[in-house]
Specification:
Elements lengths: L3 E4 L2 E4 L2 E2 H8 L3 E5 H13 L6 E6 L6 H10 L2 E4 L2 H9 L7 E3 L6 H10 L3 E4 L2 H14 L3 E8 L21 E2 H12 L4 E7 L10 H19 L6 E3 L16 H12 L5 E4 L3 H4 L3 E12 L4 E5 L8 H5 L5 E3 L9 E7 L8 E9 L5 E4 L20 E6 L2 E6 L4 H4 L8
Parallel strand pairs: 4-20, 5-6, 5-13, 6-7, 7-8, 8-9, 9-10, 9-11, 11-12, 12-13, 15-17
Antiparallel strand pairs: 1-2, 2-3, 4-14, 14-15, 14-19, 16-19, 17-18, 20-21
Helix pairs in contact: 2-3, 5-6, 7-8, 8-9
The structure holds pyridoxal-5'-phosphate (PLP) and lysine.
């Protein structure tokens, strides 16, 4: 079922016309479909239904309380990377016993908060972090459950900015060092070894990098067993891509079948940390065409959303499909537009070379904006962040109010 459809020449999210959302909540506005979110979570989980598993939604992809709460009710765990994300998950009703804590720079305060919350596992990313976690846990009289994030050194075949499983990046520990660090961990009194973790990158659209990485992780699990270290879970990370234009990422069922086949008869729980795959295509960013402007060589549609609202095009040159919410059926000429925002940067674009028939005031939907859209937004140019709305059938809920300009400098003060 597609939750974003054209009905009576107007794009709808479930049963609600996007034009009515723009009228009621104004633009720019993020709109999510509850059924698309639910379906994504359920179909990802379905592939693992008869094996011990935990799907930990990567909060960074979309930390909206309403989305976290929806996933928590569906049984999700959460992959967090900061004390802020921990607090959000708890505020949204997430179960701390289903939280994995990733990230290369965990502070003592963040470790303490996570130990107090009694989370499922720390994904430790360096030998120094392991030592610090042991010290913090010892000071608190607790034992920290850990996995070591290993870099299997496989090419994720994705954008270099979002590839993380190679030897020479800041994430995780080198595969070759992992056994030694586990042996050190085994001697630490306030560390309990629970798992092995890996995450090789994001927006991966082929199956092979996942399988190659999993092979290496399984070899490590077996080597650990030979050294008397029994692993209870393998966290295979996130990274499954989505279709932004014509990509064909692996189907969830194909992914699950292949991973389970590799696991074989090993008695370990499988943990995953999908972000984008659960939310990316469940959200759009609505924006209004403010001005049309024509130069000698280019046509510009200047819209009211900008790089501060959706950073991916400016940051990664990422492609997002852009649709007119009510495609024009009159004689307006279709032109090739640069879709740009009002921010004072030449890199502030949402799409290049889009052929659209536009009139000022038209509403556009930037598609596939549910992941790393709102979560990476900023107040650059003192622009309030967009409102967020979730559609549930024929109901529409405001899940985050539009920021007010006064909010943006409320924490500031002038010199006396
Ligand atoms: C450790 C970790 N887990 C999970 C994710 C989620 O990735 P994705 O949104 O590509 O599934 C990320 C982001 O790449 C990450 O860094
Ligand atoms: N923010 C990135 C993905 C990075 C994933 C974080 N580890 C994106 O928008 O595609």
């Amino acid at each position: 079922m597609n939750s974003f459809t054209l009905k009576n020449n107007t794009f709808h999210v479930e049963n609600i016309a996007l034009t009515s959302i723009a009228d009621e909540f104004n633009t720019p506005c993020y709109v999510y479909s509850k059924s698309a979110l639910t379906q994504a979570f359920e179909s990802f989980s379905a592939g693992f239904k008869d094996c011990d598993h935990l799907v930990c939604f990567a909060v960074k992809a979309n930390p909206s309380l309403a989305i976290l709460n929806l996933f928590a009710k569906l049984g999700a765990g959460f992959d967090i990377v900061s004390g802020g994300e921990l607090a959000r998950v708890l505020a949204a009703g997430g179960d701390p016993k289903k939280i994995v804590f990733s990230g290369v720079g965990k502070t003592e305060a963040e470790m303490q908060a996570a130990l107090n919350a009694d989370i499922f596992c720390f994904n430790v990313e360096s030998a120094s972090e392991l030592q610090r976690l042991n010290d913090v846990a010892s000071f608190m009289g607790k034992v920290a459950p850990i996995s070591l994030r290993v870099n299997p050194n496989v090419d994720a075949k994705t954008h270099p900015y979002i590839s993380t499983g190679l030897k020479n990046n800041k994430f995780g520990v080198a595969y070759e060092d992992a056994l030694d660090i586990y042996l050190q961990a085994a001697k630490m009194s306030n560390i309990a070894i629970h798992g092995v973790d890996c995450h090789i990158g994001s927006q991966i659209t082929e199956l092979s990098p996942f399988l190659d990485a999993f092979d290496r992780v399984l070899a490590l699990v077996d080597a650990l067993a030979e050294n008397g270290i029994v692993i209870q879970h393998i966290d295979a990370g996130g990274g499954i891509g989505i279709c932004y234009s014509d990509e064909t990422p692996p189907e969830f069922t194909v992914f699950a079948t292949a991973m389970r086949a590799k696991l074989g008869s090993r008695n370990v729980k499988l943990v995953f940390e999908p972000g984008r795959a659960l939310v990316g295509n469940a959200g759009v960013l609505l924006t209004k065409v403010e001005y049309l402007k024509h130069t000698e060589s280019k046509n510009f549609a200047i819209v009211d959303a900008a790089m501060n609202d959706l950073m991916r095009p400016a940051l990664y040159d990422a492609y997002h499909d852009i649709k007119a919410v009510q495609p024009r059926q009159d004689d307006t000429e279709a032109l090739t537009y640069e879709i740009v925002g009002p921010v004072c940067e030449s890199g502030d674009f949402l799409g290049h070379d889009r052929t659209l028939a536009l009139v000022e005031g038209d509403i556009l939907a930037i598609m596939s904006a549910g992941a790393y859209g709102m979560s990476m937004s900023s107040n650059y140019n003192t622009r309030p962040r967009a409102a967020e709305v979730m559609v549930d059938g024929d109901q529409c809920h405001l899940i985050r109010k539009r920021e007010q300009i006064a909010d943006l400098f409320a924490l500031e003060q002038c010199l006396p």
